[in-house]
Amino acid sequence: MNDLQMPFHDKRVVELVVSFVERLKPYGVVLNGDIVDCYQLSDFSKNPLERGHLRKEIGLARGLMRRLAKVTKERWWLAGNHEDRLRRYIWSRAPDLGVVEAVNFPSLFHVEDHGFRWKE
Predict the structure, then answer these.
(1) Cα separation of 68 and 88, whole Å?
(2) Residue 16, exposed/middle/buried by CB under 10 A (0-12, 13-18, 19+)?
(3) Helix, strand, coil percentages in the chain from 3-state DSSP, rounded to 5
(4) Which of 26, 43, 57, 114 has a CA between 20 and 30 Å from the CA of residue 51?
(5) CB-CB neighbours of 47 under 10 Å
(6) Phi, psi of 34 (to 5 degrees)
(7) What is the pLDDT of residue 112?
(8) Cis omega before residue 7 (within 30°)?
(9) What confidence score (pLDDT) does residue 47 get?
């Protein structure tokens, strides 16, 4: 799966794909980047009325991983440019946090909690 860009994803399509995976029960699954949008962390101009996306994105991603973890043995999340927005945001606005182990995408999104392996 790739380029879902949650929370701007097509909910019906994602549900169809995840339901298919749940029925198929493949050995493994790969989340191949841009699974979340990281809208608030983007360098692009943002609508000031759109707030709170990051918390929602974390919840959506965790829900997706939770479902996929139930039916797969091997799980990978490969970082895309949207996942890298967190690192770029920290490095440009709060570089001192860039050395804190817990302040990174896999920790914030609880990737390992769902048995996913992270790859930049």
Answers:
(1) 28
(2) exposed
(3) 45, 15, 40
(4) 114
(5) 7
(6) 55, 35
(7) 97
(8) yes
(9) 83
